[in-house]
Amino acid sequence: MLRVIGARLLQMLVVVLCVTALGFGLVNILQGNVVYAILGDFYTPEAAAELTAQLRLDDPLYVRYLDWLGAAVRGDFGTSVITHQSVSEAIRLALPPTVELLVGAQIVGITLALLTTVLSLRFRWADRFVTVLGLIGNSVPAFVVALMLIVVFATGLRMVSSIGWVDPATEGWGANIKAMIIPSVALGVSVFPEYMRVLRSEIYEQLESEEYVTLARMKGLSKPRILVLHVARNSVGGLITLIALTTGFLLSGVVIVEEVFSIPGIGRLVLGAINNRDATLLQGAIVLIAVGVVVANLVGELIQMRLDPRVRPGARRRVRAG
């Protein structure tokens, strides 16, 4: 297991380096005339030359990347050229709302997947209804769901606030959780159909093909008990892997949801950096997103290995040898 973790960490390092190099190049090539964007009405040839020298824009791209990478390894992602705020500080302030939104969306997606799967297994008529519900969930964009939820529950029924995040340190956790309900549902609805599809297929496969299920039935165990005691553990491996893999997808949806609900998170930070041509801030956010995705994938893979011995390294060789 330690060898697997070491190999995966090495792969993570290579992926992050590739992403940062590609991102650094694209950001610096596509950002346009950043000097003009910063100076605006105060643009003069002298001021432009001074700012170009200060930002070292005349240096080769690979030199600037290596300098940035060396500082990033020490935790210094530079300073925003627009707000003059430390990039590390800006990310630190924007990270908690995004993490809370991602966790809330995963809870909503998993809960809906479990409920609809149990419903389809318990009642035959519900299977077609759940399938249609999944198709609707896949078809409707997150921002449309967000606007519908705002109209119904915030504007119409006034059950929750349409403001997506309040600081728990000043307003309390109760107000914070209440404000995050609609954004979490809006983002969670976009992933629950895939969770439901994988969970249903895994459970059906276990029920129809595994010998231990047949043995449990011969012993007289009820279907709910077989599902809880035997099938559930062997069925969640694929779901856990999918949850890890959807982290990147959710991060893309975070940008839209955070903008709709004015949540001061990473997605809104990235959007502001793009609009302001703030290459330094955007590059720091790219690193954070890349690290978050690869770490989530690693954690999902390790959990699946723990739950399902069949996917562990050497399992196939042992089966063939046996």
Automatic annotation (TrEMBL):
GO biological process, one term: transmembrane transport
Entries under InterPro entries matching the protein: BPD_transp_1_N (IPR045621), MetI-like (IPR000515), MetI-like_sf (IPR035906)
Membrane-spanning parts: 12-30, 101-121, 133-153, 173-192, 239-261, 281-303
Keyword Cell membrane included in the entry's annotation: yes
Superkingdom assignment: Bacteria
A single cellular component GO annotation: plasma membrane
Membrane topology: Multi-pass membrane protein
Subcellular location: Cell membrane
Domain (ABC transmembrane type-1): residue spans on this chain: 95-299
Predominant place of localization: membrane
CDD domains the UniProt entry points to: TM_PBP2
Phosphoprotein in keyword set: no
Family matches, as Pfam families: BPD_transp_1 (PF00528), BPD_transp_1_N (PF19300)
UniProt keyword annotations, A-Z: Cell membrane, Membrane, Transmembrane, Transmembrane helix, Transport
Family note: Belongs to the binding-protein-dependent transport system permease family.
Protein name listed in UniProt: Peptide/nickel transport system permease protein
Organism of provenance: Plantactinospora soyae
Lineage: Bacteria, Bacillati, Actinomycetota, Actinomycetes, Micromonosporales
